[in-house]
Design a protein that fits this description.
Length: about 575
Amino acid sequence: MENLLCEKGEMIEQTLLLDDSETQKGGFRTLPFILGNAALTNAATSALTPNMILYLMNEYHMDMTTGSNIIYMWSAVTNIAPVVGAFMADSFVGRFQMIGLGSVVTLMGMFLFWLTSVIPQARPPPCVNSSNICRSAEMFQLFFLCISLGIVAIGAGAVKSSSLAFGSDQLKREVYQDNARLMERYFSWYYASYALSILVALTCLVYIQVNMGWALGFGAPVLLMLFSTLLIYLGTPFYAKLKPKSSLITGLFQVIVASYRNRCLKLSSQSEDIQYHQKKGSTVVLPSEKLRFLNKACIVQDPQLDLSPDGEATDPWRLCTVDQVEELKALLKVVPIWLTGVVLSINISQNTFPVLQANTMDRHIGSSFEIPAASFGIFAVISAILWIVLYDYLILPIASKMTGKPAHFSTKERMGFGLFLSFLSVLVVAVVEGVRRSIAIKEGYLDDPEGVILMSAMWLLPQNSLTGFAEALHAIGQNEFYISEFPRSMSSVAASLLGVGMGVGSLLASSIMSTIDDLTKRGGEESWVSSNINKGHYDYYYLVLAGFSLVNILCYIVCSKAYGPCKEEVMEEEKP
C-alpha cells in the first residue's frame, strides 16, 4: 500500500515525447489492457504473501526465524526491483517492453513456485506424526523455492515500475493536453483497481489456499497471471510507445563521479570568478552554498574542451549542470528524514507472526464462517483507505470549523503522527500477545502452538487498524514532502525513495529477528521468536520494536527541526 500511495507524484510532472508514427495511437481504449494487467498481476503476487509463513513451516519444516527471513528477503527484492525496473525502462528498454517482459517473467516464476506444491520431490516429505520426525529441505529444494520466489519478485517489480507511467503515456497525445481532469480520472481508476486487487488476494485467493489446498491455492494466481500476460499483449496494436531517454538516476551518479574527478579544483567565494555549466532554459544560475564540494561537478574549466558547439557537456561524467548538482543536494538533504521512515517500514514488514497469532485464536463469525488467519491483513488495507477518505471529508472540515479558518496539517506533522501511530501499533501487538499467550498456557496449550484458545481474533483489529492508519499517514505525507521539496524534475524520485525504504526496512527486520533469536536462545533457553509461539515471547519481541520506534520518533523530531521549515510552511507564513 505504501508504494501505491507514492506513485501519483511521479506521473504528474513527467513530460515525454512521442514518435511521429505513434501520434495516432494511445487514448482511453488502451487503459482496460493496462489496468487489467496491473490489477491481475498485483492480485496474483499479493496472494502468495499472506499464507507464505504457514506454507514454509508446514511443508518445508522451517522454523519461524528461517521462514521469516526468507519472506523478508523476498519482500526486499520485491520493493527494490521496481526502482531498477524504472531505470531500465526509462533509459534502455522502454515501458511497454518492460511490462511485457515482466509479465512473462512473473508468470514463469509463479509457475515454478506452483510446482513446489504439486511435485512431492520439490519439497521435503511429510513429518512422521507418531515420532514427530521432520526432515529438513535439501539444498536443491531450497534453491528451487528461492529461485522461483526471486523470479516472481523481479518480474512483478518490472511490471510495477512502468504500469502507471505507461497508462499516463497513452493520455499525453495533443488532443488530451487541455483536459487535466482525464489524467486525474486515470489515477483514480488505477488506485481503485489496485485496492480491489489486494482485497481479492486477501479474501478469495487466501480462502482457496486455506480450504482447497496449496495446489489449487497457488494454481489460481498462476491463471490470473496468465490472463494478465495475455491482456497486456492483446493491446499491442493500440499503444503509444515512447522512446527511452536518459534517466534522472544516471544524472545523480554523474554528479558524484564528476565532483570526485574534479576534487582538486579550488572553490572561490566570488561566484563571478567561476563559470558554471547551466541547463538550457533553466532558471537556476548558481549552485547553493550547502554541500559546496558538489559544486565542483558543474565548474567549466575550459569552455572549448568541456563544451560542445551546442553548449552540451562533452563528457557528462566530468561536467554536470547546476540543476543536476542541486537535485543531488535536495536528495541528500532529506536522507535523515527518509531514514526515520525505514524504521516504520520495519514494523510494517512484520507479516509472519500475526498470521501464526491469528491461527491460534477464535476466528469465527457466527456459527459457520471462519475468517482465514492470513486475511486479517485486509483490515489494515481498509483502515488505510478509510483514513484517506476521513481525512479529506471529515477531519479537515471539522478542524476548519473549530479554528474558524482553513485547517491544514503539514507533511512533517503527518509523517510524525504516522510514526507515533506505528509505535502504538507494535505496543498494542505486545499487549495483546501477552494476554493471548497467558490464556494459551492456562488452557494447556504450552506444547501445542496450533491449539485454538477461547479468545476472539477480533482483538487483532486495533493493531491492524493502527498499522493501516500509520501507513496511510506517513506514506502520503512523505510523498508530498518529497514532491514539494525537490526540484520539479525530481518528482519521480519520491517513488524510488519509498520503495528503497521498504526494501531496506525488510532487510533490517530480518537482521533484528535473527539477532534476537541468537541472543535469546543461548544457554538452551527458548527463543523469543520460537516456532512455538506459546513457548516464545513475541510480546517481548514487539516491545523491542516499540523501543526502536520510540527512539525513532525522537530522532525524527531532531531531524525535522534540523531540516528547518519546508517550502509549504514558508508559503503558509508568507500568507497575509
